[in-house]
Design a protein that fits this description.
The chain has 190 residues and is mainly alpha-helical. 54% of the residues lie in helices and 5% in strands. Pathway: Cofactor biosynthesis; adenosylcobalamin biosynthesis; adenosylcobalamin from cob(II)yrinate a,c-diamide: step 2/7.
Length: 190
């Protein structure tokens, strides 16, 4: 269990921070950018939850917990040392991706197929979920950039990819099962 009795430590005052394994890196490093963006996404999910009810709120709550798992995964380098570690780092697992896919399939079953791209918006909840979708895509881009230089858990990238799809479908659900989606009209304002 984590115990935080003192919030400021002064250890990062010169622009570096500690990773999950204790290594110190620049606060602007690719790894910190990746897990920092997953934390930012978690905050936007919290804002979306202010508009969500019942099943949607419960699903968003699960996602928030997963995003903390994701941050813990991304802040812990040394994938090759996981097996021998006294306290192996928390890693994203396939069942978390599978749950998202099952939820996407269940939500999508209630929707008419899209015949146009949709604009972010509609209901307040849908607008918040579209923000979550785009921040998830940014977190995914940062994670894939990190993976070019350092080993990361591939399931973390898969989770982010699927999560952005989840937010897209959930936004359609929030728009009265897609009936209130705002459709893109190409060239409408020429």
């Amino acid at each position: 269990m984590v115990v935080l009795s003192k919030i400021y430590t002064r250890t990062g005052d010169k622009g570096d921070t500690a990773l999950g394994n204790g290594d110190r890196v620049a606060k602007h490093s690719a790894r910190v950018s990746a897990y920092g963006t997953s934390d930012e996404l978690n905050c936007f999910v919290g804002v979306a939850r202010l508009e969500a009810e019942e099943d949607m709120d419960a699903a968003l709550s699960r996602i928030q917990n997963d995003l903390f798992d994701l941050g813990a995964d991304l802040c812990s380098p040394d994938m090759d040392k996981d097996a021998g570690a006294e306290y192996p780092p928390l890693r994203m697992v396939q069942s978390q991706v599978d749950r998202l896919e099952a939820e996407i399939d269940a939500m999508n079953a209630n929707l008419e197929p899209l015949r146009s791209f949709i604009l972010p918006g509609g209901s307040r909840l849908a607008a918040h979920l579209h923000v979550c979708r785009t921040v998830a895509r940014r977190a995914e881009r940062l994670a894939t950039e990190l993976a070019c230089d350092e080993a990361i858990n591939p399931v973390a990238v898969t989770y982010l990819n699927r999560l952005s799809d989840w937010f897209f479908v959930a936004a359609r659900i929030a728009n009265e099962n897609g009936t209130k989606d705002v459709l893109w009209v190409p060239g409408a304002n020429r």
